[in-house]
Design a protein that fits this description.
The complex is a heterodimer of chains A (132) and B (523).
Chain A: E1 2-6, H1 11-27, E2 31-36, H2 50-62, E3 67-72, H3 78-88, E4 91-98, H4 103-108, H5 112-119, E5 124-128
Parallel strand pairs in A: 1-2, 1-4, 2-3, 4-5
Helix pairs in contact in A: 3-5
Chain B: H1 2-14, H2 17-35, H3 41-48, H4 57-82, H5 91-102, H6 106-139, H7 144-161, H8 166-181, E1 183-184, E2 191-192, H9 206-224, H10 243-265, H11 272-285, H12 298-313, H13 315-320, H14 327-338, H15 347-350, H16 352-382, H17 388-407, H18 410-428, H19 434-456, H20 468-493, H21 513-518
Antiparallel strand pairs in B: 1-2
Classes of the chains: A alpha/beta (132), B mainly alpha (523).
């Protein structure tokens, strides 16, 4: 059993990671940090650079949490990748970030978070960005 | 002074709300497609050609001119931010531009390329005004044999000088010439290469060839290959430059313009060679040699200026001789033909208003581009996040619609698919696309001039060798064709241990063709 965190290289991703670490301590289960980027676009803001992922691994390990960092850079559907990883690793909880979206954004793009919330077999912890 | 008056007349014609709107649309679309690697202005103009049948000829030319200039601006954005040139003329910009971006100076790199493009574009467009009428008055005196020789120079230039391999260049040219042959012989009325099909008897429409090779070929290629990991976004602020950056940029801008314009203006030019020469010149002349390779601003300013100046220079042979020297110009020639206007030396006398209006619109488009690109560069970079499936689905839709619109015959759709397969195979085997398009468009013209010269001398071969102009052209062609052989002999004579650069038959663009081939030769 693991705690799976969907990590993004932005403040929301940091908040998600903090919640994931807490959850992993509470459940005393190892943490899996997953970063997904699509391979059918030229640049993806979701893609975390290698040094960022190394920093995440170091920081979380320093907190005394058993952590594995996974980067998936194939496929075109982050929700599917998160769900597949969660099922494959038998995750007991999935931690993802939620953000407000504009009306136009909702119209054009599907929501990764919504699909994870609806389709995951395990409980999902949704984290909001911290407001200053 | 006549030129300036005529140009002012052109400005007066252009400044109507509708025309300005079309120019704005053109440069916006041009920048967008320039930003996206693999989708160049040539493909876009080919896709839009059938859609603009409903527009008056002036407006569709303003649109195409805007797309052409816009593509040159947009290409640099991708080069700098992603190290992936949006089109082949921006390959050199990536060398220093991407280093600058990685060092956190993306804003300055984008600024110097946008302002440099504006400066070079404006100067070079002004040079068109000065040079073009002179070239026209010279070109009117030329007869068919001379034109035959000049077209031959354009053929050899696109096939042998540009690109990495002359064998591949000539192979592509031959395919293009064969496609241009299909149809009814205009002298004897014989059917050639039609395989008895009535659909082919009326020549293959250039739009179908261009859309098939550029759009469908590129879409198939992307579908087959380009699944690669996404890049990370380099954050860009609003482009700006410090006083020091200005001081280091203005000379490279002017030098780049001086290099780029003549290369664009000769029938065998193109933008790849002058951009590379400009890069070499800046590296030699810089006061900060240690910065080259780490992101020197001169290495962005010079090539970008050369790139835009050569794009403007292309307009000279296009308007004065009816000769295209790059793929976009080739499609614009096809656009002229589709409106029943014959491009060539008589264009300026027959349609002076149209020509001057087009040039005036280039000035205005250039100004729009500066306004669009300087503050909006971060927005353009967002285009790179569009998933490829959406993009190419749209392209295939427009491609099929355009090919069908030409004759309203389902046959053209099958032809489009076949030509798309050809375009895919050419990318697969590294054949350049430009010689094919130039061959298809200029092939019939070449044949016409050849038949005409032979008819005037009653079939005697001496009719092909006209006056001094033709001699110079043939000498150039021979020199280009024989140069590898001569170089080989020279090298053997000197002991054969020269540096790798010496006597190389290829232009300096060669080390970069790996990059250029990746994005498909679609400039």
């Amino acid at each position: 059993m693991t705690v799976l965190v969907g990590y993004l290289p932005n403040p929301l991703g940091e908040a998600t990671l903090r919640a994931g670490v807490e959850e992993s301590r509470r459940r005393s289960e190892p943490l899996v940090v997953l970063n997904m980027s699509r391979d059918d676009v030229l640049v993806d803001a979701r893609r975390a650079p290698a040094d960022d992922l190394a920093r995440v691994e170091r920081d979380v390990a320093e907190l005394g949490v058993d952590v594995e960092v996974v980067q998936v850079a194939e496929g075109s559907d982050p929700a599917e990748v998160i769900l597949a990883e969660a099922a494959g690793r038998g995750a007991s909880v999935v931690v993802i970030g939620l953000r407000h979206r504009t009306a136009v954004g909702k119209l054009i793009l599907g929501s990764v978070a919504q699909r994870v919330l609806l389709d995951a077999r395990c409980p999902v912890l949704a984290v909001k960005e911290e407001r200053p | 002074m006549d030129n300036l008056n005529a140009l002012l007349g052109g400005f007066a014609d252009v400044i109507t709300p509708m025309n300005l709107l079309i120019a704005l649309l053109g440069v916006t679309v041009g920048t967008a497609v320039g930003v996206l690697p693999g989708i160049g202005p040539a493909m876009t103009v080919a896709l839009l050609l059938p859609i603009t049948y409903g527009l008056p000829v002036e407006q569709s030319l303003i649109l195409f001119g805007g797309i052409f200039y816009g593509g040159m601006y947009g290409g640099s954005t991708t080069s700098i931010l992603l190290n992936t040139p949006g089109e082949s003329a921006s390959v050199v910009t990536a060398l220093e531009g991407n280093k600058m971006a990685k060092a956190g100076r993306a804003a300055q790199a984008l600024a110097t390329s946008a302002i440099g493009s504006f400066v070079a574009g404006t100067i070079a467009t002004a040079l068109i005004v000065l040079v073009m009428p002179q070239v026209v008055s010279f070109a009117i005196t030329l007869g068919s044999p001379e034109f035959l020789a000049i077209i031959l120079v354009a053929f050899v230039g696109t096939a042998a000088i540009l690109g990495s391999s002359r064998v591949r260049g000539f192979a592509a040219l031959l395919v293009g010439l064969s496609l241009g042959l299909v149809g009814t012989d205009f002298v004897t009325g014989q059917q050639r290469l039609t395989f008895g099909s009535p659909f082919l008897a009326d020549n293959i429409d250039v739009v179908v060839v261009a859309v098939g090779i550029f759009a469908v070929g590129e879409a198939l290629w992307v579908a087959a290959h380009l699944r690669r990991k996404a890049g990370t976004v380099i954050p860009v602020g609003r482009p700006w430059m410090s006083r020091q950056d200005w001081g280091r940029s203005w000379k490279p801008w002017l030098r780049g313009t001086a290099l780029g314009f003549p290369f664009g203006a000769i029938p065998a030019g193109g933008a790849e060679i002058p951009t590379f020469l400009s890069y070499l010149a800046e590296r030699k002349l810089t006061k900060h040699p240690e910065e080259f390779g780490q992101g020197a601003i001169e290495g962005v300013a010079g090539p970008e200026a050369a790139n835009n100046a050569s794009a403007a220079g292309t307009m000279v042979p296009l308007l004065a001789l009816g000769l295209p020297t790059n793929a976009t110009a080739a499609i614009i020639i096809a656009a002229f033909m589709s409106y029943g206007i014959e491009p060539g030396p008589l264009l300026l006398t027959k349609e002076p208003d149209l020509v001057w209006m087009l040039i005036a619109s280039l000035f205005i488009g250039n100004f729009f581009l500066l306004v669009l690109n300087l503050p909006l560069a971060p927005t353009w970079a967002k285009l790179l996040r569009i998933p490829r499936p959406y993009l190419y689905a749209g392209i295939l839709f427009f491609a099929s619609m355009g090919a069908y619109a030409v004759n309203a015959q389902p046959f053209d759709l099958f032809l489009l698919l076949a030509l798309g397969g050809l375009g895919f195979a050419m990318r697969r085997f590294g054949l350049p696309v430009l010689p094919l398009i130039v061959g298809t468009i200029l092939g019939p013209l070449f044949e016409k001039h050849m038949r005409r010269s032979l008819q005037t001398t009653g079939g005697d071969v001496s009719g092909l060798v006209g006056g001094p102009v033709a001699w110079v052209c043939y000498a150039f062609v021979l020199a280009v064709l024989l140069w590898p052989l001569v170089a080989k002999l020279l090298r053997r004579g000197r002991g054969g241990d020269d540096g790798p650069d010496d006597g190389s038959p290829h232009p300096p663009g060669v080390p970069l063709t790996g990059v250029a081939q990746w994005q498909g030769p679609s400039s």
